[in-house]
Amino acid sequence: MEKEVLAQLFTLAHERRLAIFRLLMRRFPDRLPAGEIARVLNLPASSLSQALSQLRQAGLITQAREGTSLLYAADTEAASGLVTYLAADCCRGRPEICLTSQTPKERDMTKTYTALFICSGNSARSIFAETLLRELGDGRFTVYSAGTNPQSELNPYAVEVLSAKGHDISGLRSKHVSEFEGEAAPQMDFVFTVCDAAANEECPPWPGQPMSGHWGQPDPVKAEGTEAEKKLAFQQVYGALRNRIQAFVALPVETLDRASLQNHIDDIAKQDT
Predict the structure, then answer these.
(1) If you average pLDDT over residues 153-180, what whole number do you get?
(2) How many other CB atoms sit within 10 Å of the CB of residue 229?
């Protein structure tokens, strides 16, 4: 085991390889083609190929073929094993020194949890998610949304969908993610990205180490075709996010440890919509 850990640490000790691994962790459970990784990280093909090979050899990422494409994903079990080993061995069996963790007994059973949904424009997808969790959460969640490059106003098709479904839209607005950074910002328990563009970006160092998830959805704002086809794109994204959030609010958050809760969040991202 120690030889394997040393190989993994050596592999991650290189800036390029670490950047690739961090991107794949942010996008998990997505599997990304090499071309998209190269585009996001601005890496030449030759350097990327070598780095991907080294990460695979260290057991930190997986490779799968889909048609003529090779797709890459983070191996979260390997990452968990690495962290567990470091906590057990290097921390001398005292993980509380190295890790921030909560057991079910330590959780406040009456707590209201705080969640933030992030996408690029904050005009549709994250607005849907904010509204859905606020209403489906039955008072258990304080919910916000923000954009990495927010629009000046909400998308009218998104507003139409929410209004037609009977949601309260009176307090909704587009916000920049910077509103939720700094000492005065609310401390998050959960941070979700609902678009690939936001997940590709480095997240700020959120205080309190919130749980995170990537529930990426296609951008309905970019839908083409007739007006009916464009409206359908918004309806489909709304429905997909509703399914995920219904699954999330059904989780016994108060009694799950962090590892189990993270596994559930990742499983929700994989569900068919």
Answers:
(1) 94
(2) 10
